[in-house]
Structure formats: structure tokens, C-alpha cells
Design goal:
By secondary structure, the chain is mostly helical. Helices cover 69% and strands 0% of the residues.
Length: 208
């Protein structure tokens, strides 16, 4: 606290610190009582110069801390994604028995495997490839919605879900889709889309 004020008097410091909270002020008063003259002495001297070795150590420490933070952030994000998709809900979402196009089925399976791995970016890329191949198919839209939701794009996910359900109403029974739509009701921009989809495609359960 007093390090930058190395040439300041006790009166100068007290004027600058008049807004400190009462508990800290009491601690400072106790210090003054236990060590008379602790605050009345002029703080002299200059800070020790930072050597090149210390600079390198500080830089290395910052790099390690930043790398650890990034690693933990990515790990937690991927774990959250896996919790969403490694459930029985995904089995219904990728029923490929009715997909006659082998290339399309292979791409959809690839998109689903990325979803299970928690990689929303690669999953959305695969889903978009499937859409370029067969834009009239409902499953690519559904998987793209799952991938966008995994990436945090709730608004984009609701739009993909709407296209999927327009092409195939039976996908409304997908539990993962239902859970994502209900969650989207709690967020500003995608709220209206999610409500409209649930009301239109959710049958007796969705309308309320």
C-alpha cells in the first residue's frame, strides 16, 4: 500500500487514505500502537530494479497461468458438451435407417460423432456439408441445430430446428430438441422462435 509513496509523509498518506473502510483503519491503528512510529517515518529508498532474469521468470509464469486457464476453460466447455449429447436422447436424433443415400448417411454419422465428442464446430461443418448435398432432408437441419446449440448459438439452433420440423414433424419427439427449445425460452432473442416452434409442433404438450 505504501510502496508507491516512498517519499511521502504520514500526514500525506493519511489524507490520501481517508476513505478506507473502518475495519482496515482499526487494523492500521493497532499496528501504530504496537509499533510506535511505524507510520510517522518517511518512506525512503527506490524500488530494486527488475533484472532480465526476473523478467523472464515473470513472463514464463504469466504464460503458464494463461495456458492453464485456457486449458481448463476448453476442458470444462467440452465436458459440458458431452453431458448434453452422451445420453440416450441422441439415439433417436440420428436414426439413419430411412436415409437411402450412403454418402449422406456417412456425413450425418460423422456429424453425430463430433457432437458426442463435444466438438460443435466440426459437427456444424459436417451438418452443413450434408445440407449442401441434400437440403430437403430434415436430419441435417436437426443435427445442425444440435451443433449450433452446443456452440452457444441458441437463435441459430431454433431456426435450424424449425426447418427440420417443417420437413419432418415426427422429429418433434426428439428429447434433446425439446430440452433445447425449453431452455431457449429463458433467453431473450431465441425465446420467440422457441415458443412458436413448441406451440406449432409440440402437440398437446407443447402448446401450454
Amino acid at each position: 500500500l505504501f510502496y508507491p509513496c516512498r517519499n511521502a509523509s504520514a500526514q500525506f498518506i493519511s489524507r490520501r487514505l481517508h476513505r478506507i473502510p473502518a475495519p482496515i483503519r482499526q487494523i492500521l491503528e493497532k499496528l501504530e500502537v504496537s509499533s510506535p512510529g511505524f507510520f510517522s517515518q518517511t518512506i525512503k529508498g527506490s524500488p530494486a530494479p527488475i533484472t532480465a532474469q526476473k523478467k523472464r521468470l515473470l513472463l514464463a509464469g504469466c504464460v503458464v497461468l494463461f495456458s492453464t486457464f485456457v486449458f481448463l476453460t476448453v476442458a470444462i466447455w467440452r465436458m459440458q458438451g458431452k453431458q448434453d449429447f452422451q445420453t440416450s436422447d441422441t439415439a433417436q436424433a440420428i436414426d439413419l435407417s430411412d436415409v437411402s443415400d450412403e454418402k449422406l448417411a456417412r456425413i450425418l454419422e460423422e456429424a453425430h460423432s463430433y457432437l458426442q465428442a463435444g466438438d460443435g464446430k466440426k459437427a456444424s461443418s459436417s451438418a452443413r456439408r450434408a445440407l449442401r448435398l441434400r437440403p430437403e432432408e430434415a436430419l441435417p437441419h436437426l443435427l445442425l441445430g444440435h451443433a449450433l446449440y452446443l456452440r452457444g448459438d441458441r437463435l441459430g439452433a431454433t431456426k435450424s430446428y424449425e426447418r427440420a420440423l417443417t420437413l419432418d414433424r415426427s422429429l418433434a419427439s426428439d428429447r434433446l430438441l425439446q430440452r433445447h427449445l425449453k431452455d431457449a425460452l429463458s433467453h431473450g432473442k431465441p425465446r420467440q422462435n422457441a415458443a412458436s416452434i413448441l406451440a406449432e409442433f409440440g402437440a398437446d404438450e407443447g402448446a401450454p
